[in-house]
Structures are given as structure tokens and as C-alpha cells.
Design a protein that fits this description.
Blueprint (H helix, E strand, L loop, with lengths): L1 E8 L12 H14 L5 E10 L5 E12 L3 H15 L3 E8 L32 E7 L5
Antiparallel strand pairs: 1-3, 1-4, 2-3, 4-5
Helix pairs in contact: 1-2
């Protein structure tokens, strides 16, 4: 299963200033994810970014986490966010994750319990991590 994360800075691509309050952006983002029928988690974080013109901006950033969402839907959400938030780009990261329910699989997908409080899971060698910058002018 793939976990995708979309990092969205809240400063406008032209003015390099945040136009709306963070809550307004959060509500817009929730609506975008709902419209794409994609479950999500949302965090507000702080970050910084170099614009294509070389200027640096400190900004509030929204981090959208999507687990199990098809990659094409992730790209559609990213594209819609770019347009709605007037962004130069957003960053998408993807990581393989394991999902389990301890009530259904007490041995955690075949990995044995460590015998201590909590569980022990060993990493799989074939997990791949990646990231990409999604430029808002990209066409599908």
C-alpha cells in the first residue's frame, strides 16, 4: 500500500504572501479531498521555499497524507490544489506502508510479537521511498 503526502505552501506564487488565513485554506483542502472521495489526514506545519526566481519565503504549509489513494487521484488533487491556492508547485512524496489491524492479525501480518509490551516489525527490503515536485503547469 502506498502513502502519498502533498506539501502545499500557503504563500501566493506572485506576491509571496499568504493571502487568506490558514483555516480558509484548510477548509478548501478538505473540500477538494472530499470531492475526490479520498480519505486524508491534514497537518499544518511551517516551512520555507525557494521560488523559481530565487527568492526565499518562510511560510505556513499544509501537509496532506493520503493512504491507498491511486496515484492519478493524488496528481489530480495536487493539480487542483495548485490552481485553487495559486501555487508555483507542490511537493509529493510516496512511501510504501503496511496497514494492519491488531484485532484481525495479532501476529502483525506474520511478523511475530516480540514478547514485550508492544510489537516488533522488521522492515521489508523492497520498500521504496520517492519524492517529486509537481509543477502546477504540468499537463496530464
Amino acid at each position: 500500500m502506498i502513502e502519498s503526502r502533498i506539501y502545499v505552501g500557503l504563500c501566493d506564487r506572485d506576491s509571496h504572501e499568504q493571502i487568506h488565513d490558514t483555516e480558509t485554506y484548510k477548509e478548501a483542502l478538505k473540500n477538494i479531498c472530499r470531492n475526490h472521495k479520498s480519505p486524508f489526514s491534514l497537518q499544518v506545519i511551517e516551512g520555507g521555499y525557494f521560488h523559481n526566481d530565487g527568492s526565499w519565503v518562510d511560510e505556513n504549509t499544509l501537509l496532506i497524507t493520503l493512504i491507498g489513494t491511486p496515484q492519478i487521484v493524488v496528481y489530480k488533487i495536487a493539480k487542483e490544489v495548485c490552481t485553487a491556492f495559486h501555487q508555483e508547485s507542490v511537493m509529493i512524496t510516496s512511501n510504501a506502508v503496511v496497514r494492519f489491524n491488531v484485532h484481525d492479525d495479532p501476529d502483525m501480518l506474520g511478523y511475530k510479537n516480540s514478547g514485550e509490551a508492544g510489537c516488533s516489525v522488521k522492515e521489508k527490503d523492497d520498500w521504496r521511498n520517492s519524492y517529486e515536485t509537481f509543477y502546477c503547469n504540468n499537463a496530464f
